[in-house]
């Protein structure tokens, strides 16, 4: 079988905002729901190894199903109904767990603050017992089996955990009661044909300060010829901590063994927890989908944070490579801007991509961005303002350490850069933090009165980091912001798209518009940050813009189904001076629906447009007297929401295009200019993403790496490779390796 054309290099995603969406298998893989998919994560390799795409809606629960002998063979259940055995009528409930003693027992916890036990009789589950004690909603229940007895743990919004023991009465010896012996109350029930059973409350665990959302027993392990269940219970709470509980060897009293968690930040706590099969790693997933992983240092016995993947928790709207192709920046509807780069480790060949900075954490949904230099970008959100950000010293140093680009410190003059940035508690602008601010920070905290307004609403203050590996989620939230250096005012509605020229001297911006007076493109100087020009032409929102690589032309496409081409008067200046060079009207337009995307060929001779009408068209003679379509109309079979032309030619000198579709698939085409356009032979399909590689929702943006080769790799053979980054409405960012020499 031939090797696939597209090889998945990186997948960035996070867990869905539901309590039971993460499960750690005995084979070592962590499965979690991310939007409509199930991602399989290998914590040893620190990367997503596969993505399962079959669902059409959000995945709410994921669970590995194991054999009783603790073997590594397993099945993954992710809420797909194989066959209905019985329908239970409940008003509302949170979670159901099934296990067995002599007959299958089912536990159900719900919003009535009780745990209900059902036993299977004659093939049907019947309620036999109700366990009371919790004073708020029961959020999770989980069984464990030890020495022929069942242990049931339940957690609740009352901040408590209750551990129950279920056993067969016939198997226990009678206990002699005296005045000096206190015996726990037994809840006894009969199962016909199987005898009498009892449930007792073993312990109540109090240690969390907020709702407890998740509990998880340490997985059983094989010792010799037997399977042993350790009595260790992990809990996760909205108070942003996880606690590992267990009984003392001497007294048998349940105590807190380990407590880990995040301090500070603006997260809303943990939704669930899992433990590795060997018990040496514990994992929590948070309200915003972030994974938090700790491992036990076998030498010192201490629990330390581990590197883990991260990603957006809502639709990813735009992405951009830095000019050198060493990292990508993404923006999403989760109101964040994130920066991903390869992690290169000394002495190891593995290279994995990670988020090393979160330059912007905003109060509005992010929509667009463009790079205006290696360490500077402009972003736009659902507001009328554009914001300009520049990297601080701490990021440049950390980036050099993580990516091993030591030459950065020699080339980049960082002497005058601020150390980092912080955000006021009630503000949206990242404020620069300089070295002098750090020295005075502690003294200010000591002298401030708590009753002062500044102390009641403290800003998320920056602490400098010396990173040699990707940061934790807590550091990403608080210590990797970039200072905001400029705001740009001029648009009347929310921002929609941005573009910058190849020299990074001019930025073009457009906002949402339902009338022609609001659909004008604004041009900005990147030196003075003043508005240079307004370019009116379209009647509805401009959906995307692109400058030609030679900087002479600006292309814009719109919801009004037309495109416009603007020519620069003097390309050697940054004064704007753009004039309308060519455009289509409703009468001359090739596209009959919204034009979603556009891009230029690397030689600036051609541009392509893609539309909701499923068509992709190439237009040429951009420097000639007339600008006309120069390709046959390519029907891609679905709404074409993103298009990008590779900056390097294929071995047969044809152009390589990537087209993103509304159904999530990415298709590669080769196009060669031809005089005969009637046959459609100028287009040839040369590759596409398979079911696991595709997005599950709309492809929002495609961008080729501006340099040949794979980021983080070296060697002459790298010129045979190109990389393609994609952003999807399914919250996922993907990077693909493509061997262009083989196409």
TrEMBL record:
Question: Which UniProt keywords are given for this protein, alphabetically ordered?
Answer: Cytoplasm, Nucleus, Repeat, tRNA processing, WD repeat
Q: Which GO terms describe its cellular component?
A: cytoplasm; elongator holoenzyme complex; nucleus
Gene Ontology BP annotations? tRNA wobble uridine modification
**Protein's UniProt keywords contain Repressor:** no
Pfam families xrefs? WD40
> What coarse category fits the chief subcellular location reported for this protein?
cytoplasm
User: Which spans are transmembrane here?
Assistant: none
Which range is the signal sequence, renumbered to this chain?
none
Top-level taxon of origin:
Eukaryota
Read off the PANTHER family from this record. ELONGATOR COMPLEX PROTEIN 2
Name recorded for this polypeptide:
Elongator complex protein 2
